[in-house]
Please model this.
Amino acid sequence: MFLTTLDYAVIAAYLATTVVIGLWVRRRAAKDLDSYYLGGRTLPWYMLSLSNASGMFDISGTMWLVTLGFVYGLKSIWIPWLWPVFNQVFLMAYLSMWLRRSGVLTGAEWIRTRFGDGPGARLSHMVVILFALLSVVGFLTYGFVGIGKFIEVFVPWETIAPYVPFTVPADSVAHVYGIAFTAIATFYVMLGGMLGVVWTDLIQFIIMTLSALIIGVIAIQQTDAAQLATLLPEGWQSPFFGAVLDLDWQGELAVVNEKIASDGYQWFGFFVTMMMFKGLLVSAAGPAPNYDMQKILATRSPREAALMSGFVSVVLMPIRYFMVAGFCVLAVTHFHDLDLYVGGRLDFENILPGAIKAFVPSGVAGLFLAGLIAAFMSTFASTVNAAPAYLVNDLYRRYINPDASNRRLIYAGYAVSVAVVLVSTMIGLYVHSINSVLQWLVSGLWGGYAAANVLKWYWWRFNGYGFFAGMASGIACALVFPTLFGPMLPHIAADILPLYLFPGLLAVSGTAAVVTSLWTEPDDRETLVRFYETVRPWGFWAPIDRLARERNPVLVRNTAFRRDMFNVAVGIVAQTALVALPIFIVIKEEFSVAVTLVLTALCCGTLKKTWYDKLEH
Model:
């Protein structure tokens, strides 16, 4: 496939539209910080949900999912639990409502509602800002690497080299493209803030939905189920697994076995168990201080926050995996048509762009590429929007210039946006694997986040000093453990090493958090009572519950723990079914499609009674 003038025109029109939207909403966004970072809390939940889904439909993640789907088939539906994807179910069930009731601007500002303004709270406040910045830079690096590798396949450097006044080594072409597209995304999000992000995301989601439908239909039309079965290893078409991953590719595709060995997923049962263990803890900790948290805080009410989080899975999973399954099937049946070699090296992360190049017809290619570029822009823009909120609102305005005008604060946000993009770009120049960045983020950095952030919701005695100790030790371990223990564990692939180090990381950060809390004085009772009355959590809050009800006899204790956990379990099953359903459709497994539809309907009917009907009005 060669891009035509029409294809380039479609891509250029999309990029121009994003800039126009940024200019269009600039004045509204610059009204104040609440407008810039949260859209003034005026956006309806379904717009924020589609925006959040668009942000999660990132190009780096999609390239990673296509690689996983190609190699592991239906068993790949479990691997995204690394994020974990089911954290959206916890948010839907109860955590989005708890978070939104606080009414704050950022996750760092939320710390004051939980721990007050004492020395421990200030330390906690600073460590959350540090974590947010590390997280933002990590995700921006992840996006930078993905977009560069993607564009490199479609726009060979030789075609534009005559028009560029500098030379670029072959192994640096992806970096040049990454810099160009991150610059465009940074420009429109700087101007439009949250409003610009949401409105642009809506256009991006429409483009990505059309793109997903096109590639899924192409795959269905071009694939014969019997032929596909002869090419696939036994077990590829089943989501079920045992202790050991038993996939053995044959013939031309035997090279895939080397990819399986290098990934380190052979002990698949233990791998999924570790992901579930880590995922449940990270999900119970609530959203990390990134764009997902900002979208929750931008909703108009706690009820809408829950609806927003729940709707994300409904619109994202079927559409995204219809696209992923389409590419996987086309790649399997036409593997010899793909060009997966970059710089003389076989790179399975190029299956997605290689499949587009081989199978998407000219004329449609422009729309399709615009959709995947949109996926990158959405995630990148949402992340860039989250970063200045922490440095400007939580650091600059609080500690450096409390009397700063709105105009000065907005311009400070512009400067911070540029700075974090430059830092992430510099890091991205030295990173070649999407998976390596992903593993460090979700298994390492977020692993250090888990212990302290679980305790902050559910245990009244946990104080600001304990939170600081847990977070600081967790971040330090996330940075040090891979280097310290990697040489001692040579049998574990470097990309998944952070996951297997998670129990040790959790033990260190959890011990530091609990011991420090018990060693220091409890937080101010007035702060704890006010937090309890406002957020209304369940958990180990008995002493504070008694004080709160003495002061406010009409206060009703939250006894929804069992119902919330039931909804979480049902929600995870429903979400997983929504992932598997489009894959079964594309590979034409009619019986599995029927069973999955029935299971999805049962889960949705149950959640209607036990979750939706119980939401506060």
The CA atoms of residues 393 and 399 lie 9 Å apart. The chain has 26 helices and two strands.
